[in-house]
Amino acid sequence: xxxxxxxxxxxxxETWNKKVNIHAKSEFYDVASFLEGTTSLNAYELEELGxxxxxxxxxxxxxxxxxxxxxxxxGAKCTGIDLSGEGIKEAIKLNNELxxxxxxxxxxxxxxxxKVVGEFDIVFTSYGVVGWLPDLKTWGEIxxxxxxxxxxxxxxxxxxxxxxxxxxxxxxKLTYPYLNSGVIYEEYKGTYTNSDADxxxxxxGWNHGxxxxxxxxxxxxxxxxxxxxxxxxxxxxxxxxxxxxxxxxVLKNEQRMIPLLYSIRATKK
Length: 269
Prior knowledge:
Blueprint lengths: L5 H19 L6 H5 L7 H7 L6 E4 L6 H8 L3 E6 L2 H14 L4 E4 L5 H4 L4 E7 L9 H10 L1 E12 L6 E2 L6 E2 L9 E6 L10 E6 L4 H10 L2 E9 L11 E2 L5 E2 L10 E8 L1
Parallel strand pairs: 1-2, 1-4, 2-3, 4-5
Antiparallel strand pairs: 5-13, 6-7, 8-9, 10-13, 11-12
């Protein structure tokens, strides 16, 4: 990856290393229940990806591995990668406590071709991932290179319209352009699991529209099976969300008119 991004990645890595310990102890991730058997996966990805038993699965940007381990519990042979060394340490710890055989590798997304060996039946990524990546063209190429012929790529992600808002303001203010090629810097106290945590989050990110995401995948040789958009999120991850009867969350007032999530399933030709 180009030298110009090095500072951004180093800053993000430092922030995520600080977040891991806070997240692992949070109600949001509820590690105690997870260790007792609760899955960290949501209905969207479970239904849309389907049966993974006996399949090899590469999880990109896995944080501290709960989703990776949840797929392992469902019978997949999983490898998870993440930028954060602290996240990978926590993932390995959980894997050992659960007696699973999941592999975890500390790696920047763009270093996957050098650090991850082989091809996989499934490449998976979810919830707050592409916004950390400056170059989706290379992202798509890496995904394709790590899939076996006929393999499946599945992602579920926060909708790019959501990232047009500044959620550090109340109510959220429409601040950022949908088509934004420049880097966005944010600095704030706390983290999404604990807003009062004693941590200063410093983060560099990039907005990517649906057209850019789709084109990056198709140009890399993947065939799109579907693009779905959802108004509800399984996570109460934005300020002042409303709970719905089915256990999901929606934004308040006029923000409710925008989609919160999208999912893509694609296959390697």
